[in-house]
Design a protein that fits this description.
- This protein folds into two domains: about 5-165, Creatine Amidinohydrolase, Chain A, domain 1 (3-Layer(aba) Sandwich), CATH 3.40.350.10; about 170-460, Creatine Amidinohydrolase.
- α8 runs antiparallel to α9 and α10 runs antiparallel to α11.
- It is built from 16 helices and 17 strands.
- The strands form six sheets. It has a five-stranded mixed sheet. A three-stranded antiparallel sheet has the order 9-10-12, with helices on one face. A three-stranded antiparallel sheet has the order 13-16-17.
- About 45% of the residues are buried.
- With about 475 residues, the chain is an alpha+beta fold.
- The protein is globular and about 70 Å long.
- The chain binds glycine and manganese (II) ion.
Length: about 475
Protein backbone atom coordinates (compact mmCIF):
# COMPACT_ATOMS: atom_id res chain seq x y z
CA UNK A 1 0.00 0.00 0.00
CA UNK A 2 1.16 3.58 -0.60
CA UNK A 3 1.24 6.10 2.25
CA UNK A 4 -2.02 7.40 3.74
CA UNK A 5 -1.39 10.80 2.16
CA UNK A 6 -1.34 9.34 -1.37
CA UNK A 7 -4.93 8.11 -1.03
CA UNK A 8 -6.19 11.14 0.91
CA UNK A 9 -4.67 13.49 -1.63
CA UNK A 10 -6.22 11.64 -4.58
CA UNK A 11 -9.68 11.89 -3.00
CA UNK A 12 -9.18 15.56 -2.25
CA UNK A 13 -8.19 16.26 -5.84
CA UNK A 14 -11.17 14.30 -7.16
CA UNK A 15 -13.54 16.35 -5.01
CA UNK A 16 -12.09 19.62 -6.24
CA UNK A 17 -13.93 19.00 -9.53
CA UNK A 18 -17.23 17.59 -8.22
CA UNK A 19 -19.28 19.75 -5.89
CA UNK A 20 -22.61 17.98 -5.41
CA UNK A 21 -24.10 14.56 -4.80
CA UNK A 22 -22.61 11.34 -3.46
CA UNK A 23 -19.73 9.52 -5.13
CA UNK A 24 -20.20 5.77 -4.85
CA UNK A 25 -17.19 3.45 -5.16
CA UNK A 26 -17.98 -0.26 -5.42
CA UNK A 27 -15.26 -2.75 -4.55
CA UNK A 28 -15.26 -6.23 -6.01
CA UNK A 29 -16.36 -9.51 -4.44
CA UNK A 30 -15.03 -13.03 -4.81
CA UNK A 31 -16.34 -14.89 -7.86
CA UNK A 32 -16.85 -18.66 -7.84
CA UNK A 33 -15.27 -20.61 -10.69
CA UNK A 34 -17.40 -23.72 -10.48
CA UNK A 35 -18.94 -23.45 -7.02
CA UNK A 36 -19.07 -20.42 -4.72
CA UNK A 37 -16.16 -21.22 -2.42
CA UNK A 38 -13.76 -22.30 -5.20
CA UNK A 39 -12.99 -18.80 -6.36
CA UNK A 40 -10.99 -17.14 -9.12
CA UNK A 41 -8.02 -15.18 -7.84
CA UNK A 42 -9.50 -12.08 -6.20
CA UNK A 43 -8.93 -8.83 -8.07
CA UNK A 44 -10.03 -5.57 -6.48
CA UNK A 45 -11.68 -2.92 -8.62
CA UNK A 46 -8.90 -0.62 -9.85
CA UNK A 47 -10.68 2.66 -9.10
CA UNK A 48 -11.47 1.46 -5.59
CA UNK A 49 -7.80 0.54 -5.17
CA UNK A 50 -6.70 3.90 -6.52
CA UNK A 51 -8.74 5.96 -4.05
CA UNK A 52 -9.09 3.59 -1.07
CA UNK A 53 -6.15 1.18 -1.36
CA UNK A 54 -7.86 -1.72 0.45
CA UNK A 55 -7.27 -4.91 -1.48
CA UNK A 56 -9.98 -7.22 -0.21
CA UNK A 57 -13.49 -8.28 -1.16
CA UNK A 58 -16.88 -6.90 -0.16
CA UNK A 59 -16.10 -3.24 0.41
CA UNK A 60 -17.71 -0.07 -0.86
CA UNK A 61 -17.16 3.58 -0.12
CA UNK A 62 -18.91 6.88 -0.52
CA UNK A 63 -17.71 10.43 -0.55
CA UNK A 64 -20.29 13.14 0.07
CA UNK A 65 -19.22 15.81 -2.41
CA UNK A 66 -21.03 18.52 -0.41
CA UNK A 67 -19.96 17.77 3.17
CA UNK A 68 -16.73 15.96 2.30
CA UNK A 69 -17.72 13.03 4.52
CA UNK A 70 -16.00 9.76 3.58
CA UNK A 71 -17.29 6.34 4.66
CA UNK A 72 -15.98 2.85 3.97
CA UNK A 73 -18.61 0.12 4.16
CA UNK A 74 -17.29 -3.31 5.16
CA UNK A 75 -17.70 -5.94 7.83
CA UNK A 76 -15.43 -6.79 10.71
CA UNK A 77 -14.56 -10.46 10.69
CA UNK A 78 -16.61 -12.92 12.73
CA UNK A 79 -15.21 -15.84 14.70
CA UNK A 80 -16.14 -18.11 11.77
CA UNK A 81 -14.05 -15.97 9.43
CA UNK A 82 -11.15 -16.09 11.88
CA UNK A 83 -11.30 -19.90 11.95
CA UNK A 84 -10.96 -20.13 8.15
CA UNK A 85 -8.98 -16.99 7.28
CA UNK A 86 -7.09 -16.06 10.44
CA UNK A 87 -7.28 -12.85 12.47
CA UNK A 88 -7.80 -9.57 10.57
CA UNK A 89 -7.41 -5.93 11.61
CA UNK A 90 -10.65 -4.13 12.46
CA UNK A 91 -12.33 -2.25 9.60
CA UNK A 92 -11.74 1.03 11.46
CA UNK A 93 -7.98 0.35 11.49
CA UNK A 94 -7.90 -0.58 7.84
CA UNK A 95 -9.83 2.57 6.95
CA UNK A 96 -7.53 4.72 9.07
CA UNK A 97 -4.59 3.34 7.09
CA UNK A 98 -5.98 5.10 3.99
CA UNK A 99 -7.10 8.20 5.86
CA UNK A 100 -10.82 7.42 6.24
CA UNK A 101 -12.28 8.04 9.70
CA UNK A 102 -15.76 6.55 9.38
CA UNK A 103 -16.72 2.94 8.72
CA UNK A 104 -20.10 1.20 8.61
CA UNK A 105 -21.17 -2.42 8.16
CA UNK A 106 -21.58 -3.39 4.51
CA UNK A 107 -25.29 -3.99 5.04
CA UNK A 108 -25.76 -0.27 5.85
CA UNK A 109 -24.81 0.75 2.31
CA UNK A 110 -28.23 0.11 0.80
CA UNK A 111 -30.03 2.15 3.49
CA UNK A 112 -27.52 4.94 3.17
CA UNK A 113 -28.01 5.17 -0.59
CA UNK A 114 -31.79 4.74 -0.30
CA UNK A 115 -31.91 7.74 2.04
CA UNK A 116 -29.91 9.85 -0.41
CA UNK A 117 -32.21 8.82 -3.27
CA UNK A 118 -35.28 9.74 -1.20
CA UNK A 119 -33.78 13.16 -0.57
CA UNK A 120 -33.36 13.59 -4.31
CA UNK A 121 -29.57 13.60 -4.13
CA UNK A 122 -27.51 12.63 -7.15
CA UNK A 123 -25.61 9.35 -6.71
CA UNK A 124 -22.59 9.37 -9.02
CA UNK A 125 -21.45 5.87 -9.95
CA UNK A 126 -19.00 4.43 -12.49
CA UNK A 127 -19.97 1.99 -15.26
CA UNK A 128 -20.27 -1.46 -13.65
CA UNK A 129 -18.57 -4.43 -15.36
CA UNK A 130 -19.35 -7.26 -12.94
CA UNK A 131 -22.80 -8.72 -12.63
CA UNK A 132 -22.96 -8.53 -8.83
CA UNK A 133 -22.18 -4.81 -8.98
CA UNK A 134 -24.92 -4.38 -11.57
CA UNK A 135 -27.36 -6.21 -9.31
CA UNK A 136 -26.37 -4.01 -6.37
CA UNK A 137 -26.75 -0.77 -8.35
CA UNK A 138 -30.03 -1.93 -9.84
CA UNK A 139 -31.39 -2.72 -6.40
CA UNK A 140 -30.18 0.50 -4.79
CA UNK A 141 -30.92 2.96 -7.57
CA UNK A 142 -33.78 1.25 -9.39
CA UNK A 143 -32.04 1.70 -12.75
CA UNK A 144 -32.73 -1.18 -15.19
CA UNK A 145 -29.69 -3.36 -15.96
CA UNK A 146 -29.65 -2.31 -19.60
CA UNK A 147 -29.48 1.38 -18.65
CA UNK A 148 -26.81 1.25 -15.94
CA UNK A 149 -23.92 2.02 -18.28
CA UNK A 150 -25.54 5.03 -19.95
CA UNK A 151 -26.60 6.46 -16.58
CA UNK A 152 -23.11 6.30 -15.09
CA UNK A 153 -21.84 9.74 -14.08
CA UNK A 154 -19.81 11.36 -16.86
CA UNK A 155 -18.53 13.92 -14.38
CA UNK A 156 -17.26 11.16 -12.09
CA UNK A 157 -15.73 9.20 -15.00
CA UNK A 158 -13.90 12.26 -16.31
CA UNK A 159 -12.66 13.17 -12.84
CA UNK A 160 -11.27 9.68 -12.30
CA UNK A 161 -9.64 9.51 -15.75
CA UNK A 162 -7.99 12.91 -15.31
CA UNK A 163 -6.28 11.70 -12.14
CA UNK A 164 -5.50 8.08 -12.98
CA UNK A 165 -4.03 8.79 -16.41
CA UNK A 166 -1.23 10.99 -15.05
CA UNK A 167 1.01 8.63 -13.15
CA UNK A 168 2.52 9.77 -9.86
CA UNK A 169 6.15 9.03 -9.00
CA UNK A 170 5.11 6.18 -6.68
CA UNK A 171 3.09 4.64 -9.49
CA UNK A 172 5.90 4.97 -12.01
CA UNK A 173 8.18 3.11 -9.60
CA UNK A 174 5.58 0.31 -9.49
CA UNK A 175 5.29 0.28 -13.27
CA UNK A 176 9.07 -0.02 -13.59
CA UNK A 177 8.77 -3.07 -11.32
CA UNK A 178 5.97 -4.50 -13.46
CA UNK A 179 8.18 -3.99 -16.52
CA UNK A 180 11.10 -5.75 -14.86
CA UNK A 181 8.92 -8.78 -14.09
CA UNK A 182 7.62 -8.69 -17.67
CA UNK A 183 11.22 -8.60 -18.87
CA UNK A 184 12.06 -11.69 -16.81
CA UNK A 185 9.00 -13.52 -18.18
CA UNK A 186 9.90 -12.79 -21.81
CA UNK A 187 13.65 -13.20 -21.43
CA UNK A 188 13.18 -16.63 -19.86
CA UNK A 189 10.82 -17.69 -22.66
CA UNK A 190 13.23 -16.35 -25.28
CA UNK A 191 15.93 -18.61 -23.87
CA UNK A 192 13.62 -21.64 -23.76
CA UNK A 193 12.09 -21.41 -27.23
CA UNK A 194 13.18 -24.32 -29.38
CA UNK A 195 11.54 -26.77 -31.72
CA UNK A 196 9.77 -29.66 -30.05
CA UNK A 197 8.42 -27.94 -26.97
CA UNK A 198 4.74 -27.13 -26.56
CA UNK A 199 3.47 -23.57 -26.34
CA UNK A 200 1.84 -24.24 -22.98
CA UNK A 201 5.19 -25.14 -21.39
CA UNK A 202 6.31 -21.57 -22.05
CA UNK A 203 3.02 -20.13 -20.80
CA UNK A 204 3.35 -22.04 -17.52
CA UNK A 205 6.90 -20.84 -16.90
CA UNK A 206 6.00 -17.24 -17.74
CA UNK A 207 2.92 -17.28 -15.55
CA UNK A 208 4.99 -18.78 -12.72
CA UNK A 209 7.50 -15.92 -12.95
CA UNK A 210 4.69 -13.38 -12.75
CA UNK A 211 3.21 -15.08 -9.69
CA UNK A 212 6.59 -15.50 -7.98
CA UNK A 213 7.28 -11.78 -8.32
CA UNK A 214 3.83 -10.18 -8.24
CA UNK A 215 0.19 -11.17 -8.30
CA UNK A 216 -0.29 -12.70 -11.75
CA UNK A 217 0.00 -11.93 -15.44
CA UNK A 218 -1.64 -8.61 -16.26
CA UNK A 219 -3.94 -10.44 -18.72
CA UNK A 220 -4.22 -14.03 -19.97
CA UNK A 221 -0.96 -14.74 -21.81
CA UNK A 222 -1.12 -14.65 -25.61
CA UNK A 223 1.44 -17.10 -26.97
CA UNK A 224 0.99 -18.76 -30.31
CA UNK A 225 2.56 -19.77 -33.57
CA UNK A 226 -0.74 -18.58 -35.06
CA UNK A 227 0.06 -15.00 -34.20
CA UNK A 228 -2.24 -13.75 -36.97
CA UNK A 229 -5.04 -14.42 -34.47
CA UNK A 230 -4.49 -11.26 -32.45
CA UNK A 231 -5.49 -12.56 -29.03
CA UNK A 232 -4.74 -16.26 -29.35
CA UNK A 233 -5.18 -18.08 -26.05
CA UNK A 234 -4.83 -21.60 -27.40
CA UNK A 235 -1.45 -23.03 -26.39
CA UNK A 236 -1.34 -26.58 -27.66
CA UNK A 237 0.96 -26.46 -30.65
CA UNK A 238 4.41 -28.00 -30.79
CA UNK A 239 7.02 -25.45 -31.85
CA UNK A 240 8.24 -26.23 -35.34
CA UNK A 241 11.10 -24.83 -37.36
CA UNK A 242 10.19 -22.12 -39.83
CA UNK A 243 7.31 -20.68 -37.82
CA UNK A 244 6.98 -17.47 -35.83
CA UNK A 245 5.92 -17.40 -32.19
CA UNK A 246 4.08 -14.31 -30.94
CA UNK A 247 4.37 -13.84 -27.16
CA UNK A 248 2.27 -11.02 -25.71
CA UNK A 249 2.43 -11.00 -21.93
CA UNK A 250 2.98 -8.79 -18.93
CA UNK A 251 2.94 -8.85 -15.18
CA UNK A 252 0.88 -7.28 -12.44
CA UNK A 253 2.85 -6.21 -9.34
CA UNK A 254 1.66 -6.82 -5.80
CA UNK A 255 0.27 -3.28 -5.97
CA UNK A 256 -1.57 -4.26 -9.18
CA UNK A 257 0.31 -2.11 -11.70
CA UNK A 258 0.72 -3.67 -15.13
CA UNK A 259 3.26 -4.22 -17.86
CA UNK A 260 2.57 -5.49 -21.38
CA UNK A 261 5.27 -6.60 -23.82
CA UNK A 262 5.18 -8.46 -27.09
CA UNK A 263 8.04 -10.15 -28.86
CA UNK A 264 7.93 -12.39 -31.91
CA UNK A 265 10.51 -15.16 -32.10
CA UNK A 266 11.49 -17.66 -34.77
CA UNK A 267 10.49 -21.04 -33.29
CA UNK A 268 13.72 -22.63 -34.51
CA UNK A 269 15.97 -19.74 -33.43
CA UNK A 270 16.58 -18.26 -36.90
CA UNK A 271 14.33 -16.06 -39.04
CA UNK A 272 13.80 -17.04 -42.68
CA UNK A 273 14.55 -14.27 -45.20
CA UNK A 274 10.84 -13.65 -45.71
CA UNK A 275 10.22 -13.43 -41.95
CA UNK A 276 13.18 -11.13 -41.45
CA UNK A 277 11.89 -8.74 -44.13
CA UNK A 278 8.51 -8.33 -42.45
CA UNK A 279 10.04 -8.36 -38.96
CA UNK A 280 12.36 -5.51 -39.87
CA UNK A 281 9.43 -3.37 -41.04
CA UNK A 282 7.65 -3.92 -37.71
CA UNK A 283 10.75 -3.28 -35.58
CA UNK A 284 11.41 -0.08 -37.56
CA UNK A 285 7.82 1.03 -36.94
CA UNK A 286 8.18 0.23 -33.24
CA UNK A 287 11.42 2.21 -32.86
CA UNK A 288 10.27 5.16 -34.97
CA UNK A 289 7.02 5.39 -33.02
CA UNK A 290 8.89 5.44 -29.71
CA UNK A 291 11.19 8.15 -31.07
CA UNK A 292 8.15 10.31 -31.89
CA UNK A 293 6.57 10.14 -28.44
CA UNK A 294 6.62 13.45 -26.59
CA UNK A 295 4.10 15.78 -24.92
CA UNK A 296 1.89 17.62 -27.39
CA UNK A 297 1.82 15.04 -30.18
CA UNK A 298 -1.40 13.05 -30.53
CA UNK A 299 -1.12 9.29 -30.35
CA UNK A 300 -3.22 9.13 -33.51
CA UNK A 301 -0.38 10.93 -35.33
CA UNK A 302 2.10 8.37 -34.00
CA UNK A 303 -0.25 5.52 -34.98
CA UNK A 304 -0.57 6.88 -38.53
CA UNK A 305 3.20 7.40 -38.82
CA UNK A 306 3.73 3.75 -37.83
CA UNK A 307 1.10 2.80 -40.42
CA UNK A 308 3.04 4.70 -43.06
CA UNK A 309 6.25 2.81 -42.22
CA UNK A 310 4.33 -0.43 -42.50
CA UNK A 311 2.75 0.56 -45.82
CA UNK A 312 6.04 1.77 -47.30
CA UNK A 313 7.81 -1.40 -46.19
CA UNK A 314 5.12 -3.58 -47.76
CA UNK A 315 5.20 -1.49 -50.96
CA UNK A 316 8.98 -2.03 -51.10
CA UNK A 317 8.41 -5.79 -50.83
CA UNK A 318 5.68 -5.71 -53.51
CA UNK A 319 2.84 -6.75 -51.17
CA UNK A 320 1.24 -3.32 -51.40
CA UNK A 321 1.39 -0.78 -54.20
CA UNK A 322 0.90 2.94 -54.80
CA UNK A 323 1.71 5.79 -52.44
CA UNK A 324 2.18 4.94 -48.73
CA UNK A 325 0.55 8.14 -47.47
CA UNK A 326 -2.50 7.65 -49.67
CA UNK A 327 -2.69 3.98 -48.67
CA UNK A 328 -2.72 4.94 -44.99
CA UNK A 329 -5.33 7.65 -45.58
CA UNK A 330 -7.50 5.00 -47.25
CA UNK A 331 -6.88 2.59 -44.37
CA UNK A 332 -5.35 -0.01 -46.72
CA UNK A 333 -2.49 -0.90 -44.35
CA UNK A 334 -5.11 -2.00 -41.81
CA UNK A 335 -5.42 -5.25 -43.76
CA UNK A 336 -2.06 -6.06 -42.18
CA UNK A 337 -2.47 -4.17 -38.88
CA UNK A 338 -6.15 -4.08 -37.97
CA UNK A 339 -5.48 -2.90 -34.40
CA UNK A 340 -4.31 0.34 -32.82
CA UNK A 341 -0.72 1.24 -32.00
CA UNK A 342 -1.34 1.09 -28.26
CA UNK A 343 -3.31 1.94 -25.17
CA UNK A 344 -2.84 3.61 -21.81
CA UNK A 345 -1.67 1.37 -19.00
CA UNK A 346 -1.64 1.61 -15.20
CA UNK A 347 -3.68 -0.33 -12.67
CA UNK A 348 -5.28 -2.03 -15.67
CA UNK A 349 -3.35 -3.27 -18.64
CA UNK A 350 -5.87 -1.41 -20.81
CA UNK A 351 -6.12 1.36 -18.30
CA UNK A 352 -9.62 2.34 -17.23
CA UNK A 353 -11.25 0.51 -20.12
CA UNK A 354 -14.20 -0.19 -17.80
CA UNK A 355 -14.87 3.57 -17.69
CA UNK A 356 -15.26 3.72 -21.48
CA UNK A 357 -12.44 3.72 -24.04
CA UNK A 358 -13.47 7.05 -25.49
CA UNK A 359 -13.21 8.81 -22.13
CA UNK A 360 -9.67 7.45 -21.75
CA UNK A 361 -8.24 7.68 -25.25
CA UNK A 362 -10.23 10.57 -26.71
CA UNK A 363 -11.65 13.93 -25.64
CA UNK A 364 -13.82 16.76 -26.95
CA UNK A 365 -11.18 17.70 -29.54
CA UNK A 366 -9.94 14.24 -30.55
CA UNK A 367 -12.81 12.07 -31.76
CA UNK A 368 -12.55 8.38 -32.48
CA UNK A 369 -12.50 7.42 -36.18
CA UNK A 370 -14.94 4.97 -37.73
CA UNK A 371 -12.55 3.62 -40.40
CA UNK A 372 -11.59 -0.06 -40.12
CA UNK A 373 -8.29 -0.31 -38.26
CA UNK A 374 -8.16 3.29 -37.04
CA UNK A 375 -11.37 2.76 -35.10
CA UNK A 376 -9.54 0.17 -33.00
CA UNK A 377 -7.01 2.74 -31.80
CA UNK A 378 -7.72 2.98 -28.07
CA UNK A 379 -5.58 6.07 -27.50
CA UNK A 380 -5.91 8.89 -30.02
CA UNK A 381 -5.57 12.06 -27.98
CA UNK A 382 -2.65 14.34 -27.17
CA UNK A 383 0.11 12.92 -25.01
CA UNK A 384 0.97 14.52 -21.68
CA UNK A 385 3.84 13.97 -19.23
CA UNK A 386 2.82 11.13 -16.93
CA UNK A 387 0.91 9.15 -19.53
CA UNK A 388 2.01 5.54 -19.83
CA UNK A 389 1.29 3.97 -23.20
CA UNK A 390 2.13 0.82 -25.07
CA UNK A 391 3.71 0.90 -28.52
CA UNK A 392 2.70 -2.25 -30.37
CA UNK A 393 2.81 -2.19 -34.14
CA UNK A 394 2.22 -5.47 -35.90
CA UNK A 395 1.90 -7.10 -39.30
CA UNK A 396 -0.42 -10.07 -39.73
CA UNK A 397 -1.55 -12.19 -42.63
CA UNK A 398 -5.12 -13.17 -41.81
CA UNK A 399 -6.31 -15.37 -44.70
CA UNK A 400 -10.03 -14.85 -44.02
CA UNK A 401 -9.62 -11.06 -43.97
CA UNK A 402 -7.46 -11.02 -47.10
CA UNK A 403 -10.03 -13.20 -48.91
CA UNK A 404 -12.84 -10.89 -47.80
CA UNK A 405 -11.08 -7.75 -49.02
CA UNK A 406 -10.17 -9.47 -52.27
CA UNK A 407 -13.70 -10.66 -52.97
CA UNK A 408 -15.18 -7.27 -52.07
CA UNK A 409 -12.48 -5.35 -53.93
CA UNK A 410 -11.58 -3.36 -50.81
CA UNK A 411 -8.55 -1.11 -51.30
CA UNK A 412 -7.54 -3.20 -54.32
CA UNK A 413 -5.58 -0.27 -55.77
CA UNK A 414 -3.15 -0.59 -52.82
CA UNK A 415 -2.95 -4.37 -52.30
CA UNK A 416 -1.26 -7.04 -54.43
CA UNK A 417 -3.66 -9.81 -53.52
CA UNK A 418 -2.01 -12.43 -55.76
CA UNK A 419 1.35 -12.17 -53.99
CA UNK A 420 -0.34 -12.46 -50.58
CA UNK A 421 -1.27 -16.08 -51.35
CA UNK A 422 2.35 -16.96 -50.51
CA UNK A 423 1.83 -15.51 -47.00
CA UNK A 424 -1.25 -17.45 -45.90
CA UNK A 425 0.89 -19.59 -43.57
CA UNK A 426 3.11 -16.75 -42.40
CA UNK A 427 1.31 -15.97 -39.13
CA UNK A 428 1.89 -12.58 -37.57
CA UNK A 429 4.43 -10.30 -35.95
CA UNK A 430 3.87 -7.85 -33.10
CA UNK A 431 6.49 -5.94 -31.10
CA UNK A 432 5.38 -4.08 -28.00
CA UNK A 433 7.15 -1.87 -25.47
CA UNK A 434 5.89 0.23 -22.56
CA UNK A 435 6.61 3.95 -22.57
CA UNK A 436 6.32 6.77 -20.05
CA UNK A 437 5.77 10.24 -21.50
CA UNK A 438 8.19 12.62 -19.77
CA UNK A 439 8.42 16.43 -19.72
CA UNK A 440 10.48 16.55 -22.90
CA UNK A 441 10.03 13.17 -24.57
CA UNK A 442 9.66 9.69 -23.24
CA UNK A 443 11.45 6.76 -21.71
CA UNK A 444 10.94 3.02 -21.77
CA UNK A 445 9.70 1.47 -18.56
CA UNK A 446 11.88 -1.11 -16.85
CA UNK A 447 15.61 -1.36 -16.28
CA UNK A 448 16.34 -3.22 -19.52
CA UNK A 449 14.73 -3.47 -22.92
CA UNK A 450 14.02 -6.87 -24.38
CA UNK A 451 16.01 -7.58 -27.55
CA UNK A 452 14.03 -6.18 -30.46
CA UNK A 453 16.07 -6.16 -33.68
CA UNK A 454 16.09 -9.42 -35.66
CA UNK A 455 19.84 -9.79 -35.12
CA UNK A 456 19.62 -9.21 -31.37
CA UNK A 457 16.73 -11.66 -31.02
CA UNK A 458 18.58 -14.42 -32.89
CA UNK A 459 21.76 -13.69 -30.97
CA UNK A 460 19.98 -13.93 -27.59
CA UNK A 461 18.08 -17.05 -28.54
CA UNK A 462 21.22 -18.86 -29.65
CA UNK A 463 23.55 -17.66 -26.88
CA UNK A 464 23.03 -20.35 -24.23
N1 LIG B 1 -1.28 -6.95 -25.02
C1 LIG B 1 -2.65 -7.24 -25.20
C2 LIG B 1 -3.41 -6.05 -25.60
O1 LIG B 1 -2.91 -4.97 -25.57
O2 LIG B 1 -4.58 -6.15 -25.94
MN1 LIG C 1 -0.95 -4.10 -25.30
Amino acid sequence: MFTTEVYANRRKRLLSGIRSGLLLFTGNSEVGMNYPSNTYRFRQDSTFLYFFGLDEPDLAAIIDAESGEEIIFGNDVSIDDIIWMGPQPAMADKAARVGVKKVMPYSNLEDYIAKAVTLGRKVHYLPPYRDNTKILLNRMLGIPFGELKQNASEQFIKGVVALREIKEAVEIAEMDKAADIGYAMHYTAMKMVKTGIIEQELVGIMEGISISNGTMPSFPIILSQNGETLHNHSHHQVLTDGRLLVIDAGAETNMHYASDFTRTLPSGGKFTGKQRDIYTIVSTANNMAIDMIRPGITYREVHLAAGKILAQGLINLGLMKGNAEEAVAAGAHALFMPHGLGHQMGLDVHDMEDLGENFVGYDDVHIRATQFGLRSLRMGKELKPGHVITVEPGCYFIPALIEKWKSENINSSFINFEILKDYYNFGGIRLEDDVLVTDKGCRLLGAKRLPVTADDVECEMNDN
